[in-house]
Amino acid sequence: MTGPDHYQTIEKNAFAEYKDRGSKFIAYAYPVQTVDNCKQYLQQLKKEHPKAVHHCFAYRIGWDGNVFRVSDDGEPSGTAGKPILGQIDSKQLTNIIVIVVRYFGGTLLGVPGLIQAYRSATAMVLQLVPAIQKPIEIMYELHFDYTLMNEVMMVIKQTGCSVALQEVQLFCLLKIGVPKAKREEVLYKLKQLHTIEVKQSEN
In terms of domains, do 129 and 174 share one? Predict the structure, then answer.
């Protein structure tokens, strides 16, 4: 990945179509955060393309890229999922799934032909979406009295933290993503508020 403070991903969905000897390969790329996101997109495409013979995919998730999976969905082993993941990795992307939907055109492409087709369809779709750098965030939970809300939000805005969850009552809970590069600054500023409880979140 590009240095320990950032990771590369895509910001929006895209699709591209590749044809070879009558077979159509439609590649879809989506930015994702969780394995559940990946499952939702796969279900969605299976509904949209019920007559397609294969829905092959690869995903990589997490700023360290440790969570990944490939699926050939009935194609010969290693001809679909791996070439798709290879293209994702060649661009050093994470938090992404690429699903390639195949319509069979009547001519068998053979193993090299399939690898080439899945690789090409994936390369095409990844050319359409610009890769963006995002800060690696560490999740923290903040518990504090409602009277501190303005000060807490000020720190969050000034330091570019993201808010993942907000429960506001007399006593507030915020779940925030702290950019790794600004972790010390953020924790220092929050601790200056004294009555706030800050703890690192599990996820």
Answer: no
